[in-house]
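Input:
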Amino acid sequence: MNRKPYLMLTSLVVLSLLLVACGTSTIEVTREVPVTVEVPVTVEVPVAGTPAAPVRVPVVFAEAGETLKTVTARGRLLCGGNAAVPGFGYLDPNTQQYAGFDIDFCKAIAAAIFDDPEAMEVIATTGTTRFPALQSGEVDVLIRNTTWTISRDTSLGFDFGPTTFYDGQGMMVLKDSGITNLQGLAGGTVCVQQGTTTEKNLADVMRALNIGYEPLVLADAQATREAYDQGRCDGFTTDKSGLVSQQTLLADPSAHVILDVTMSKEPLGPLTRHGDNNWGDVVAWVTYCTIQAEELGITSANVDDMLGSDDPVVLNTLGVEGDLGLALGLTADFCARVIRHVGNYGEIYDHNLGPDTPFNLPRGQNALYSEGGLLYSPPFR
Amino acid sequence: MTIRPSPREGASPASAIPFWRDVRVLGVLAQLAFVFFVAAALSWIGNNVAQGLQALGGAQFLCDDGTSSFRCAFNFMSSAASFDIGEKPIDYQTTDSYWRALTVGLLNTVKVSAIGIVLSTLLGLFTGVAVLSNNWLLSRLAAGYIDVIRNTPLLVQLFFLYFAVILQLPPLRESLQPAPGVFLSQRGIALPWPVLTASFLPWLAFVILGLIQFQLMVFLLGQRERQTGKLSNRWLWAPLTGVIIILIGWQLTISFNSNQALLVSRASRVAQAPNPASGLEALVAKRLGLPQLTPDALATLDEATRAEGALQVCVEKDSPSEPNLAAQLKSWNIPFKMTRFDRADQAGAAYAEGACDVLAGERTLVVAERAALENPDGHLLVSIQESPVVLSLPQLEGLNLVGGARLTPEFAALLFGLVIYTGAFIAEIVRAGIQSVARGQSEAARALGLTEGQRLRLVVLPQALRVIIPPLTSQYLNLTKNSSLAIAVAFPDLVAVTNTILNQSGRAVQVVVLVMLSYLVVSLAISALLNWYNRRVALVER
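Output:
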């Protein structure tokens, strides 16, 4: 069959040129080279009681304290992340580095444990692979715009940390389609990503409103956006934060509009395996630390000055007084480390989603409780 | 009886060959070791799965009574799926169970595989023959196709086909219309499609009667020809009489059925009209505020007036009543507007609220809706003719097309992707099969004066088939399994649907087991069928 190798070669070249021209490229998933730094850490694992398993069901969960030991021994944190949502978890094609809001919380945990935000590795997961990755222990913590639901919390065997981002499902349509509400989509096609709560929400909301529609379920965020951008769908639904981020990647972002409807509550936050309460606490309090720091006005710029503050609340939070961190199995100054390397919640938000970014996403519910939002940290004492 | 070693050999045979050099003993030991390793590997895998499941906790196997047991591993499949599926060969709603969702996915897989197998066989056969053709251009083109397609991954081809070819078609509103009623756009291809109505079965009897008449005429006239030697025009008379019977049957079934009916208010002028056509004309006239409308006057109305006076019809979506009434109203030149409802009772409710002038549907249905009205006597049933077969035409309505048959871009991309890919492999198998037939056979066929077509059809292919069938079986299985790439082009096949089930329920092991079993069943069915066929075409050896 290879009597005419030139013909074959030419056809291949033509085909590949076409492919390149049409831009159906796939994201290359490159893992960051992990920087391992040996930090002497005294780990005092508090003796937690047997995991409080619900009665009747014979449950064997992750062993208490196991994950932190594993992470410390490994020398770096493995985070389940996203590679395709700019602003939240995105593999920057220029720098080949992961960046985003979720990624920064990974860095915060790494900073709390190792005093080095880079002592972590992001494992890119898709909507479908993220849960098995955490269940199997391939990653230590999953921070990948994942909605906190009762079924995920219970039957999947996970524990959710504090919500880092209060989101809601939205719908994007073409501006000149004249669609202003969900009823306008009757009979139309809606692009939705597989393996997300949005797929079920969409079905539930449309059923409640008695709107007939056709779903087009795609494998990942990129394919979903591509199909919508090409005009295959009348609507594109995902969390509003996701829509804002995907809009920047459309061919003509200004031609699209996000409808003023919120189809669901989507509290997004970090997940750990159920049973290792200590590790769950570490993730939770690192997150709270960023919120607490914003409440107290501690930023990455002034954290070292704040170490000499007169306010006992600040001193407790930063570990100058007391040893709150030790009970977590971390150091007393874990929160100071987080703020020094990554910054407080407001800094993380502004850096990834704030006015200086293409998204310019208003804080909305993600403001401090004192400013009308939902963010509230339990006290550090 | 014991066998004593012969003293002349000096030693017994057993002691002459130590057991570790005895081939039979070694053979047994090797087999034992093999069995041991296989068993160990299997138990290791099984153990891993069991441990993993246990680590996930008892919630994975929750029974209805709240206990946890392996027996209940698949109980979750009975709960409501609550997600939508884009293409469904059978009726499916979000309130149906996961089992039904799985069935929809499986049927989609079977559908694309079955059509794919037929088309790829045709393509492969043609290309395989073309490669060996004496026509230089044809054979080079075919060879080029095979080489390019065989040496690039299917996933890349699917992406290319879907995103770079099909989705680049014009948007729905600017659809290409290569023929009347045919829409080609990035929302897929829509074609006019015949819909069978309730009176199709009676008509089918006439069709069969017509065919029997045709056969009978051919036979009887042929016999007379042979007996008398007088030529008769049997190829004229046989089909003619057959068609006449079928046409008479068509008219009879139309005249003598009362399946379709309309519901109109008694207060409207339809009640006084001598026939449905003039009654509906009167309704249009009333809408326009005219005393009456003759058919001639109707024909001369302009577009705006037609739209204004359009008869408002409520009808169930995808029921045969809709295209049947549409064809009827078109023949009467009556302007109309159909409002389609997912269910018949929704259409009835809309009629009750006065949203439309007319409720159309099958008689039993309309009677039931009439009985449900507050004032049944205030409404009148009007019989409408029903053709055994009506043509449903695709029409643009709202954001989508309704009516006709639609081929979605996703299905088209997957189908053509699989056909083009597998066709290249089948072409190679066909080529090899043809080349395996001894050259002498072809030469003998030519010497007998067979045409090239006859040579291929009667001499070469039947012999090549024996070589072709076994590898063809594995290509068919490949096509079926490759259809699992469907999610890449958003087609809801088995894998796509079960991925969602897995994600919603979190029961990875159970769902994967179900997927594997489903593919196993489909694959075994295909290979059983082809093995049976293979036995039929194989050389009979004695």
